[in-house]
Write a structure and sequence with these properties.
Length: 64
Amino acid sequence: MAERELYCDTCACLRPFEVPPCLDGHGSACPELACIRCGTALILAPALTSLRRRHGRPTRRRAA
């Protein structure tokens, strides 16, 4: 299991985190990490952004 040192909110300091056994088949690339001391879980995921642009002009609306 791979280890990396990250800030643990529960322990309130830097702690080693490890990748727990992954049942989803990610192996060492699993986005889930667990604090070795207290077991707090972290999920590391990339930020997703939408690159789609709106086409056309906004719809004109009328007041009721």
